[in-house]
From TrEMBL:
Gene Ontology molecular function terms on file: (3S)-3-hydroxyacyl-CoA dehydrogenase (NAD+) activity; enoyl-CoA hydratase activity; isomerase activity; NAD+ binding
UniProt keyword annotations, A-Z: Fatty acid metabolism, Isomerase, Lipid degradation, Lipid metabolism, Lyase, Multifunctional enzyme, NAD, Oxidoreductase, Peroxisome
Biological source species: Acuticoccus mangrovi
Identification of the protein by name: Enoyl-CoA hydratase/isomerase family protein
Protein location: Peroxisome
Upper classification of the organism: Bacteria, Pseudomonadati, Pseudomonadota, Alphaproteobacteria, Hyphomicrobiales
C-alpha cells in the first residue's frame, strides 16, 4: 500500500510510502484523498497528520505520468480535500518536499519541518508551473516575491529559511512519526496554530517586481514556463478560486508545451545514462584514496573535485615547483568553497591532501587519474610507469579529451584496469563526465568509474573509444559546419548571434575566443596529417591564429576585446581576412538567414550524434543529449540535439540532411540511425 492510515489516540496519521521519492502517482493521490476523507469523517479523530516514509517527504508529482492523459484524482482535488478538511491537517516535511509535495504541505493547516529538510517549487525546471495551488497558497503565506524566488530559481530552500518566510511553522528534530505525534499534541494544546491557507487574505500585489521579471524573461529564450509562472503569481492577489483556476489553465498550457517535453526528457535521460549494464554485472572496486598525476588546470580541478567529495588525494607533478603550483591551485578552490559556505572549515582542515613529485607516492592509491599534457607519447610513458608502480587492484584512468584510450591502456601493460575519465573544465564545477571504455577495460573498472562519478556528483555518460568520444566529436563537426558557412558568406558574428538567440550560451567563435583559439589550432594541426585531402577545409581560423589572435587572452581573436569591455566586438580585420580567403577560393558569398544557420548547425549535431550511436561510441541517442546539454551548453529547454530534432520533426531533418549533403556529404550524409527511425516512424529519443 502506497498510502496507509494509522490511529494513535485521537490522532490520525496518513503515511505515504512510495519509494524512491514518494512521487504523487495516481495511487498515492487516490490514497491521500481517501485517507483525508476517512479520517475527517471519523469522530474519534481530532487532528490529522500527513507524513511519509523513506528518505524524503513527497518529492512532487510523478513526472512519468506527464506524457499520459491526466488521471483522477487530479492533485488540485487532493489539495482541496486537505484544505477543506474540518479536522485540522498538519504536514510533516523531511528530506525534500518539492513541487506537488510542497503543495500538499501548503494545503495543510500547519507545516512542521524536520531540521535538514528542504522545500521547493522546481516545476519550471521541467517546463511546467506549480499546478496544485503552489502559486496561490505560498504567496498567501510568504508573499509574491518570496514565492517567486522559489518558482523562478527552481531551487529549494532550507527548513530554516522557509520558517523565516512563514512557509513552515516549526522546525523540529526527530523522526517524521515522532514529529507528527508531537505536532498533533501541539495543535490540541493550542501551541501550534492551524489555519486554512485559502482563508488567508490574497497576496499583496507586486506590480513592479512582476514587470521586472517579465522584462528579464522576455530578453532570453526558453522561458515559456517561467512567464506562465509569473502570470500565475500575479493572480494570487485576487480571489483564491480565480487564482487556482488561472494557475490550472496556465499549468495545462505548459504541460502541452514542447519545452515541457524537452525538459522532462533530459531529466530522465540524465538518470538513464548512468544505468550501464556493467553496474549490474560487476562490483565496483572500493575507492578511498585517489592519485592525480598533473597539477595543471585539469589535474588541480580533478583533485579539488575528489577532495570536495571526501576522497583522500595524492597529487604528483613532474617536480616540486609543479607540485607547489598544483597545491596552490587546489587550496584556492577549497578556500573558495569555504568562503561560499559550500565546505565547512573543519571538513577542510581534515582533508587528506598531499602534493609532491615522487611517482612512488601513487603506490597506495586505489584510483589514479592521469591529467598530464595532451600528448600521446607523454601519456604512454606515464602509463608505462604507472603499470609498474600502482597497486595491482588499482584503477588507472586517463583524463584525455580525445586521444586513443586503447593505445594508452596498452602502454600500461594492464589494459583491463584502464578507463578514460574525461572531465570538463572546471572539473570541480562541470557536471558531465565521459567514461571512456576501452576494448579491454574490465567491467568492474567501468562499475568503479560510474560509482566514483556518482560520488563526485557528476552526470556520467558511457563512451566508446573514438576521436573526440561523444561531445568533442559533435563539437568539432558543428564548428566545421560553421566555418563552411562563414567561408560561404555568413560572418562569424552572424553565426554566433543566431545560435545565442536560439539558446546556446555562446556561439562557436565566442567559445573559441573564450577557451583560446590556439587549442583548436593545435587540434587541427594534429589532424592535418590524417585529413582527407578531398574533404573541404576552411583555413580562416588558422589564418586568425597565424596572426597570434588567440582570443580573450591575447586581446583579440575572432573578436576584439577592448580594455575593460564586457564582451568582444566584431573585428573589421577579421572580416577582411575572410573576404581574402573567399576571393582566393573564388567563392561568391551568399546570404544565410538565422534560420538556415541554426538548421545547419542542428542537423550537423543530430547527424554526428547519430553516427556516434551507429559506431557504438554512444550507447543510446539520449546519451548524446545528456552530453551536449551538460558539457557543451546545448539549451536544456530544447532537451538536447536529438530531442530537438524529434520536436522539429525527424522526417524534415532527414530531408534537410539529404539536401545539405549535396554540397557537403562529410557533415550531412544521413546517419543510419536517422534513416531507420524515419522509416520506422519512431523518434530518436
Ligand atoms: N517523479 C517520478 N520519478 C522521480 C521523480 C518524480 N517527481 N523524482 C525523482 N524520480 C526518480 C528518478 O527518476 C530516479 O529514478 C529516482 O527517483 C531517484 O531520483 C503539480 C506537477 C527528489 C531531489 O521536480 O529533483 O510536482 O533512476 O536519482 O539525486 O505542481 O529526484 O532510480 O529509476 O534524482 O537523490 C516536481 C524531481 C515535479 C523533483 C532526489 N518535483 N526530482 O534526487 O535521486 S512536478 C521535482 C528531483 C510537480 C505539481 C507539479 C530529485 C530529488 P531511478 P534521483 P536524488
Amino acid at each position: 500500500m502506497v498510502v496507509t492510515t494509522e490511529r494513535h489516540g485521537k490522532t490520525g496519521l496518513i503515511v505515504v510510502d512510495n519509494p524512491p521519492v514518494n512521487a504523487l502517482s495516481q495511487a498515492v493521490r487516490s490514497g491521500i484523498l481517501e485517507a483525508v476523507q476517512t479520517l475527517d469523517a471519523d469522530p474519534e479523530i481530532d487532528v490529522i497528520a500527513l507524513l511519509a516514509e523513506g528518505r524524503t517527504f513527497i518529492a512532487g508529482a510523478d513526472i512519468r505520468e506527464f506524457s499520459a492523459p491526466p488521471s483522477e484524482p487530479l492533485l488540485p482535488a487532493v489539495a482541496a480535500a486537505i484544505v477543506g478538511s474540518a479536522t485540522p491537517v498538519v504536514c510533516v516535511i523531511h528530506g525534500t518536499a518539492l513541487g506537488g509535495g510542497f503543495e500538499m504541505a501548503l494545503a495543510s493547516h500547519a507545516r512542521v519541518a524536520l531540521a535538514g529538510a528542504k522545500v521547493g517549487l522546481p516545476e519550471t525546471t521541467l517546463g511546467i508551473i506549480p499546478g496544485a495551488g503552489g502559486t496561490q497558497r505560498a504567496p498567501r503565506l510568504a508573499g509574491i516575491v518570496a514565492t517567486a524566488d522559489l518558482v523562478i530559481s527552481g531551487k529549494p530552500i532550507s527548513a530554516g529559511e522557509a520558517l523565516k518566510k512563514g512557509l513552515v511553522d516549526r522546525v523540529v528534530e526527530g523522526t517524521p512519526r515522532e514529529a507528527a505525534l508531537a505536532a498533533a499534541e501541539a495543535v490540541r494544546d493550542g501551541s501550534l496554530a492551524t489555519r486554512r491557507t485559502d482563508a488567508l487574505p490574497p497576496a499583496e500585489p507586486a506590480p513592479d517586481e512582476i514587470a521586472g521579471w517579465r522584462a528579464e524573461l522576455a530578453a532570453r529564450p526558453g522561458t515559456f514556463a517561467l512567464e506562465q509562472a509569473v502570470s500565475a503569481l500575479e493572480a494570487s492577489s485576487g480571489p483564491i478560486e480565480d487564482g487556482l483556476a488561472t494557475e490550472r489553465l496556465l499549468f495545462e498550457t505548459c504541460r502541452a508545451s514542447p519545452e515541457r517535453a524537452a525538459r522532462v526528457h533530459i531529466f530522465f535521460a540524465e538518470r538513464e545514462a548512468s544505468k550501464v549494464p556493467e553496474l549490474k554485472r560487476a562490483e565496483p572496486r572500493p575507492i578511498a584514496r585517489v592519485g592525480v598525476i598533473g597539477g595543471g588546470t585539469m589535474g588541480a580541478g580533478i583533485a579539488a573535485a575528489c577532495l570536495l567529495s571526501g576522497y583522500d588525494v595524492t597529487m604528483v607533478e613532474r617536480d616540486d615547483e609543479g607540485a607547489a603550483r598544483g597545491r596552490a591551485t587546489v587550496e584556492g578552490v577549497l578556500d573558495g568553497s569555504v568562503k561560499r559556505g559550500r565546505l565547512s572549515a573543519d571538513k577542510r582542515a581534515n582533508m587528506a591532501f598531499s602534493a609532491g613529485s615522487d611517482f612512488a607516492d601513487l603506490a597506495d592509491c586505489d584510483l589514479v587519474i592521469e591529467a598530464a599534457f595532451e600528448d600521446m607519447a607523454v601519456k604512454k610513458e606515464l602509463f608505462g610507469r604507472l603499470g609498474e608502480v600502482a597497486r595491482a587492484d588499482a584503477v588507472l584512468a586517463t583524463n584525455t579529451s580525445y586521444l586513443d584510450v586503447d593505445e594508452i591502456a596498452a602502454a600500461s601493460g594492464r589494459a583491463g584496469d584502464v578507463v578514460g575519465l574525461h572531465f570538463f573544465s572546471p572539473a570541480y564545477v562541470m557536471k558531465l563526465l565521459e567514461v571512456v571504455v576501452g576494448e579491454k577495460t574490465a567491467p568492474d573498472v567501468v562499475a568503479t568509474a560510474f560509482t566514483v562519478a556518482k560520488r563526485l556528483g557528476k552526470i556520467a555518460v558511457w563512451s566508446g573509444v573514438g576521436d573526440g568520444f561523444i561531445g568533442n566529436r559533435i563539437f568539432l563537426a558543428y564548428r566545421r559546419t560553421a566555418d563552411i558557412m562563414m567561408e560561404d558568406g555568413a560572418s562569424p558574428y552572424d553565426i554566433d548571434r543566431a545560435l545565442v538567440a536560439w539558446g546556446l550560451p555562446m556561439g562557436p567563435y565566442q567559445a573559441a575566443d573564450f577557451a583560446g583559439q590556439d587549442i583548436g589550432w593545435a587540434t587541427r594541426k594534429r589532424r592535418a596529417a590524417t585529413r582527407d585531402p578531398n574533404e573541404r577545409y576552411v583555413a580562416i581560423a588558422d589564418k586568425v591564429c597565424e596572426r597570434g589572435w588567440f582570443g580573450r587572452k591575447t586581446g583579440r581573436g575572432f573578436y576584439l576585446y577592448p580594455e575593460g569591455a564586457k564582451s568582444g566586438v566584431p573585428d573589421p580585420e577579421v572580416l577582411a581576412l575572410i573576404e581574402e580567403e573567399r576571393r582566393a577560393k573564388g567563392i561568391v558569398p551568399r546570404n544565410f538567414t538565422d534560420e538556415e544557420i541554426v538548421n545547419r548547425i542542428l542537423c550537423t549535431m543530430v547527424n554526428e550524434g547519430a553516427r556516434a550511436v551507429d559506431a557504438g561510441v554512444a550507447r543510446q541517442a539520449s546519451d548524446v543529449d545528456v552530453v551536449m546539454v551538460n558539457g557543451y551548453g546545448f539549451p536544456r529547454f530544447r532537451g538536447g540535439p536529438m530531442k530537438a530534432a524529434d520536436i522539429a520533426g525527424l522526417p524534415g531533418i532527414l530531408d534537410d540532411l539529404k539536401r545539405f549533403a549535396a554540397d557537403d556529404a562529410t557533415a550531412f550524409a544521413p546517419a543510419r540511425l536517422i534513416e531507420e527511425c524515419v522509416a520506422a516512424g519512431r523518434p530518436l529519443v
